[in-house]
Write a structure and sequence with these properties.
Elements: H1 2-13, H2 15-22, H3 33-49, E1 60-68, H4 80-89, E2 92-97, H5 107-110, E3 114-116, E4 119-122, E5 125-127, E6 130-133, H6 146-155, E7 159-162, E8 178-183, H7 184-189, H8 192-198, H9 201-206, H10 208-213, H11 215-220, H12 227-239, E9 243-250, E10 255-261, E11 265-270, E12 275-280, H13 287-291, E13 299-304, H14 308-314, E14 316-321, H15 326-335, E15 338-341, E16 352-357, E17 360-362, E18 367-369, E19 375-390, E20 393-406, E21 411-421, E22 424-431, E23 434-437
Parallel strand pairs: 1-2, 1-9, 2-4, 7-8, 8-9, 18-23
Antiparallel strand pairs: 1-14, 3-4, 5-6, 6-7, 10-11, 10-13, 11-12, 14-15, 15-22, 16-17, 16-19, 19-20, 19-21, 21-22, 21-23
Helix pairs in contact: 4-14
Bound molecules: zinc ion.
Zinc ion binds at residues 67, 69, 98, 126, 249.
Length: 440
């Protein structure tokens, strides 16, 4: 096979580079066929144990992906057709776009919106540290401060989430809707060895078969527990309710393209078409086979490491909606009626975390007052390791499909559900908090 010939040649030529990049224990260490196969098997095994759970309460659950970029953003070429196809393949029915604003278009007026093939599209921007979902065009708006920007959007009923918390842990913007409690790109940025490897086209070529065989496991190898994000979120929730959402930061812009260039050159480009190296095309191993039936200008090989399907499946924000409309989505996010799940591990549909007393039920995000007999109840479609967090500290750990905890102290309570995957305990689900105030 062409690829294995390429692999052998490149592996021998660049053995020094490989040794330098592989022998380190960050996410790169997970990018080995044996380890990925074991993760794949563990995920498959969970499917057999998965049991549907009926949702209690009046709401319907819909999976959303926030912080999605398309061709409107300078760093993506994604078409709406391929993004909607990826949404459908991953059980997503709400796509919330956060394009990088630019002079040549108005993200609010021209951005993706409406219903397309059953998927609800909501336009927004990634702007000045926020995920903004305004209710009016922001064209020409140049606020002086984050607070001013947030006040403007919030004052007209829009949603504002603080984005990329790792860059703004010290922000105290009043009145925002909430914060990203996980951002895929932030998770990726701290994998220094993996980043170095992915920037090396020669390493990518030798790893092509592995990425093709385990696309989701390879992508999701970057997942870490977002401890710094959650610590900051808990602090912010102590001041006022902040809805936690996950940010896919999906661009589909990591990978490699080999194109047959003029003058019989092979152009090795990144996923957006930027030239990385140029070689004589004849020097590519298996060059004749690669070029068979192709002509100058054609793509000889394409490897995408973050296709929309894999980045959208990795993590999602599940919303409890009255109906599938933009108005209902905005209302659920405002109320914190949502949970975040790494659905690549297992389908989290049906997860629940609520406060109950007598016949009263309070959904995630609710603000309530301590009452006698108040209890927290959780359920999941798999047996999980539960961690109950109160005001940023773990107060209870248990195992099973359900969680039950009598509330004796007020505080902000949120639940985490973890799964054991191939010898590693991994975060699966993060609930939004229940904000329980003292009785007087
Ligand atoms: Zn982004």
């Amino acid at each position: 096979m062409i690829l294995s010939k390429l692999t052998r040649l490149l592996a021998s030529l660049f053995i020094v580079v490989l040794c330098a990049t592989i022998a380190h224990a960050d996410a790169l260490a997970k990018l080995e066929p044996k380890k990925l196969a074991a993760v794949h098997q563990a995920v498959e095994a969970l499917r057999a144990e998965w049991k549907p759970v009926a949702r209690i309460g009046p709401y319907r659950e819909h999976r959303a992906n926030l912080h999605v970029h398309s061709h409107w953003s300078h760093d993506s070429r994604g078409t709406i057709d391929e993004i909607v196809a990826a949404a459908k393949a991953t059980g997503t029915s709400v796509l919330m776009f956060n394009e990088h604003p630019a002079e040549h278009y108005d993200f609010f007026k021209e951005g993706h919106q409406g219903i397309k093939e059953g998927v609800l599209l909501i336009p927004g921007a990634e702007s000045q540290g926020f995920l903004a979902f305004p209710t009016l065009s922001l064209r020409g708006v140049k606020p002086d401060t984050p607070q001013e920007f947030s006040d403007l959007v919030r004052g007209r009923g829009g949603l504002m989430f603080v984005s990329h918390l790792e860059e703004r842990m010290d922000w105290n913007v009043r009145g925002v809707t909430g914060v990203e409690i996980y951002n895929t790109h932030a998770d990726f940025k701290d994998e220094k060895k993996m980043l170095a490897a992915l920037r090396n086209p020669l390493w990518l070529l030798q790893a092509t078969e592995m990425f093709r065989k385990y696309p989701q496991e390879s992508f999701s190898a970057l997942q870490d527990y977002p401890a710094d994000y959650l610590k900051r979120w808990d602090e912010l929730c102590a001041t006022a309710p902040h809805t936690g959402v996950s940010a896919n930061d999906a661009h589909q812009n990591v990978g490699l393209i080999i194109r047959w260039g003029v003058g019989d050159k092979a152009r090795i480009e990144d996923a957006l078409g930027k030239l990385l190296i140029e070689l004589d095309v004849a020097s590519l191993p298996g060059s004749d086979e690669l070029r068979k039936g192709k002509q100058v200008g054609d793509v000889l090989l394409r490897l995408l490491l973050d296709p929309y399907e894999n980045s959208l499946r990795h993590v999602g924000t599940h919303l409890l909606l009255t109906e599938l409309t933009e108005k209902a989505v905005r209302e659920a996010l405002e109320a914190g009626r949502a949970f975040v799940a790494f659905d690549w591990l297992a389908n989290s549909t049906g997860f629940d975390f609520a406060a109950v007393a007598d016949t009263q039920r309070h959904e995630m995000g609710s603000q309530l007052v301590m009452t006698r007999g108040l209890a927290l109840r959780g359920q999941a479609p798999l047996s999980v390791h539960w961690r109950l967090v109160r005001n940023g500290k773990v107060v209870e750990e248990s195992a099973g499909r359900t969680l039950s905890f009598p509330v004796v102290e007020p505080g902000n309570y949120r639940a985490e559900a973890w799964l054991d995957i191939s010898g590693e305990r991994m975060l699966w689900i993060l609930s939004n908090p229940l904000y329980i105030a003292p009785a007087e």
